[in-house]
Model the fold of this input.
Amino acid sequence: MESILILSEKLPHVRSIDVVNDLGFKKSSVSVAMKLLREKGLIEASPEGYLTLTKEGLKIAESVYERHVILSKCLIALGVSEDVAREDACRIEHDLSEESFQALKNHLAFAEKQHKK
Done:
């Protein structure tokens, strides 16, 4: 869903093949994932194969993407390279508790505010 969100900002229409290319997964894996997301009501697919997030899907995708951005920024601020920070953020974003995420988010906001002074 996060990939669909990001791609939808870059492309006029998002298709499964775009998600395949973005994530580097097999077509069959993405096809199965898209089917599950449709069944859960998180995405819709047009007859032309264009993917869109439902209201609930968009809400979840934006939340996951926010976690990814915040975690990446925190890791980069600690001296981790951008590539490694992004990869690690992908691993962490789904398992991190809401309490820990909010603490990191607040800390990053405070640090950025202090840096601007």
Observations:
- The chain has six helices and two strands.
- The beta strands are 43-45, 51-53.
- The first helix runs from residue 2 to 10.
- The chain has two domains: 2-53, 66-116.
